[in-house]
Design goal:
Elements: H1 2-20, H2 23-26, H3 30-39, H4 41-75, H5 81-90, H6 98-112, H7 116-126, E1 130-135, E2 141-148, H8 151-156, E3 168-178, E4 191-196, E5 202-209, E6 226-233, H9 236-239, E7 248-252
Parallel strand pairs: 2-3
Antiparallel strand pairs: 1-2, 1-7, 3-6, 4-5, 4-6
Helix pairs in contact: 4-6
């Protein structure tokens, strides 16, 4: 065995010296390397695994972050659809792919929000959003409303708030219809409480309610389920003729 190996080594050395004398043969062709890699299932598998790891570590989180950013900008009225189109065209993304990209981002965001922790974070984030609530009276009137979406924000409401500008309000949002009653405990000014159903129609108005200073406070609720509640300064509902059956529009700020 020892002798055979020596002979092989001599052949190898001769071959190497022969190659050294020919510059064309020492040049490594890039195409040959690609062909070699493609012929090796192990290397192909390794490359695929590296690519998947890169996507998992960087591309997918960045996509999700981008989706959440777009949703936040859109929900706060800072980014309109025309702006999204402008951004996509800036990166030479064909218009035909816009809906596909939007659907993908929405799907990824929905998958993310199935996580309870992320859902709770999104709910707390929603408490900081302001929207425009318009009552379609004659003439119509609009208020800028701070959203109360989390349970904590809904429990607190306008308690301990000293005053509220005449063109502002608080909007309580419920994911499903409810009959939860409201009260005026720890309030510091009179309010109107307006209950709105899932079809965005006023179903009940309690006018000019004074703060409750008693241990046991009166509870206010409509006789049918509601999905939204608007609290405004006392007397404004009567002033602007906001009554049951009044249509309501909730829209992002622009």
């Amino acid at each position: 065995m020892e002798e055979t190996r020596n002979n092989d080594d001599q052949k190898l050395n001769v071959s190497s010296s022969d190659r050294g004398s020919d510059n064309d043969e020492t040049t490594i062709n890039a195409l040959d390397v690609v062909v070699f890699i493609l012929k090796s299932p192990f290397l192909v598998l390794l490359f695929l695994l590296k690519a998947i790891k890169f996507l998992w570590d960087y591309a997918i989180p960045l996509t999700i972050l981008g989706a959440l950013t777009l949703l936040w900008l859109t929900s706060t009225g800072r980014l309109e659809k025309t702006k999204i189109t402008e951004i996509l065209s800036r990166y030479n993304i064909p218009t035909s792919f816009e809906s596909l990209i939007t659907d993908y981002l929405y799907q990824k965001t929905t998958e993310l929000l199935t996580s309870q922790t992320l859902k709770e974070s999104a709910i707390k984030f929603a408490d900081n959003i302001k929207v425009k609530v318009t009552f379609l009276t004659a003439p119509q009137v609009s208020f800028i409303c701070k959203v109360a979406f989390s349970e904590e924000a809904k429990r607190k409401g306008l308690m301990y708030v000293n005053s509220l500008p005449q063109d502002e309000c608080m909007l309580f949002v419920y994911e499903s219809s409810t009959l939860t009653p409201f009260w005026t405990k720890n309030m510091r000014f009179n309010i109107d409480i307006i209950f709105i159903d899932s079809k965005l129609r006023v179903i009940k108005v309690f006018n000019n309610l004074a703060p409750c200073t008693e241990e046991v406070c009166v509870a206010y609720a409509p006789s049918v389920p509601y999905n939204f509640v608007v609290e405004i300064n006392g007397g404004l509902a009567k002033k602007y003729s906001i009554t049951p059956n009044t249509k309501v529009v909730i829209s992002p700020l622009k």
